[in-house]
Amino acid sequence: xxxxxxxxxxxxxxxxxxxxxxxxxxxxxxxxxxxxxxxxxxxxxxxxxxxxxxxxxxxxxxxxxxxxxxxxxxxxxxxxxxxxxxxxxxxxxxxxxxxxxxxxxxxxxxxxxxxxxxxxxxxxxxxxxxxxxxxxxxxxxxxxxxxxxxxxxxxxxxxxxxxxxxxxxxxxxxxxxxxxxxxxxxxxxxxxxxxxxxxxxxxxxxxxxxxxxxxxxxxxxxxxxxxxxxxxxxxxxxxxxxxxxxxxxxxxxxxxxxxxxxxxxxxxxxxxx
Length: 273
Description:
The protein is α+β, with helices and mostly antiparallel strands. The protein is 27% helix and 23% strand.
């Protein structure tokens, strides 16, 4: 597995949990969306910080199958730097342009693995991700910001060099399955042409040795092993479901994320945090 990951920059599918169990996770999330429907600020935090606000998602980021696979790549000491939702509504034109994850995260290294967990059927029709094998070996390439309304990325960022779509692999997943990819890998996704929402949770695992280049102690969860570096602000499980104190912790971290992710541009144009 590790050899394939090092060569291609990704692995899929990874079986995370049963269809029945992931259905319960989705239902919990969608119920929380309904409960926060009249509070846009907290709804935005829910979509950016589900694992800090819902115990069901805290359990997801600690899932033994995810941890077992990520430790093969990053080692036994693991933190979750973030766990954000990527949602394409039914029959939606929303897309994700070709990009590399680590472009704007402000981290000092590439010791990171993103596990994208499908909460719904994720296929070509619903706008699944597509990866360019081996593109993670290019390091970071130039990107440009578009702030396009149809782009789900924070800055509508896209790679500023030509990417050949014919080189891409479509990452089709069943609910409860995940893909794993390197933070430098070229990836994108198309529109959702189905009658169901396409819902995924992107869980970003890092080694504790990583740090924010700004010196900020951003919010993380230690999910395996130990932290011998003290570079981040570690919190444990949510106090309870949609807890006020947890929202405040997420809000404070969102101020850091906004400053880091939108460096040099107007954050008010952004999609997240």
